[in-house]
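Sequence design from tokenized structure. All designs in this work follow the same two-part layout: the structure record, then the generated sequence. An example of the structure record is given first.
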């Protein structure tokens, strides 16, 4: 049961991660990546600063130890001279006291020399670490600048991709099915063309068929009847009698 739950959890995690990646805005993710790169560079600079600071502190300790060594060495030499001078004068107590002081200075010299050797080793290591830290910061800075330049390029490509996707979507609407309730452009065009072709076909049938001739005869009959009625009215009114007689004469006689 526990194994099943683990597998189920891993499956759900992978599914949610996949859904998130599919729906995430690339522009937002790009800005997040740039911010993370800036943050990493800031942390690297802080670490490098600590390494360099350690190198500087080690260097200051070494310089201070060298100065102390020179000072103690001078005191030790002075104590030896004073002890020798006291012994020459027969001042045994002073000579003994100066000799003990010289021995203490000598012990201090040994301790300082050991400390200086240790500090030199530490300083060498700290200097190498500081140089590596500086190189790492410089290299990371170059990489960050490269990412910033690439960001502008990627943003431009993203805008072009979005525009192309919109064009593709618009073209798909014109050429592909977008749903059962929404006809495509091609379907509407075919429907209109079919209707237009049918109407043209019917018109041709009407123009060349018997019905068309019957309508033409009826129209001619109506026109003849209208002219006869008009002539009758003119005759009753005594208008155009001469015109009617002239119309009945042959062309030769009219001349």
């Amino acid at each position: 049961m526990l194994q099943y739950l683990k597998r189920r959890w891993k499956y759900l995690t992978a599914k949610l991660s996949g859904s998130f990646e599919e729906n995430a805005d690339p522009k937002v993710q790009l800005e997040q990546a740039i911010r993370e790169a800036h943050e990493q560079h800031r942390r690297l600079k802080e670490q490098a600063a600590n390494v360099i600071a350690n190198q500087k502190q080690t260097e200051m300790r070494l310089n201070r130890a060298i100065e102390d060594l020179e000072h103690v060495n001078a005191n030790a030499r002075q104590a030896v001279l004073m002890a020798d001078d006291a012994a020459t004068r027969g001042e045994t107590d002073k000579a003994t006291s100066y000799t003990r002081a010289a021995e203490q200075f000598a012990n201090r010299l040994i301790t300082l020399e050991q400390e200086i050797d240790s500090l030199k080793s530490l300083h060498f290591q700290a200097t190498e670490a500081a140089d590596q830290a500086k190189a790492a910061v410089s290299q990371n800075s170059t990489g960050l600048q490269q990412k910033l330049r690439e960001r502008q390029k990627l943003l431009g490509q993203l805008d072009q991709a979005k525009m192309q996707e919109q064009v593709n979507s618009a073209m798909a609407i014109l050429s592909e099915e977008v749903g059962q309730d929404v006809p495509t452009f091609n379907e509407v065009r075919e429907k209109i063309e079919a209707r237009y072709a049918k109407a043209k076909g019917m018109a041709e049938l009407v123009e060349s068929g018997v019905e068309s001739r019957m309508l033409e005869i009826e129209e001619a009959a109506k026109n003849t009847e209208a002219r006869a009625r008009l002539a009758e009215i003119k005759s009753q009114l005594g208008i155009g009698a001469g015109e009617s007689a002239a119309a009945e004469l042959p062309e030769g006689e009219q001349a």
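Helices lie at 2-23, 26-89, 92-175, 185-208, 210-237, 241-248, 251-254. We note this feature because it recurs in several other targets discussed in the main text.
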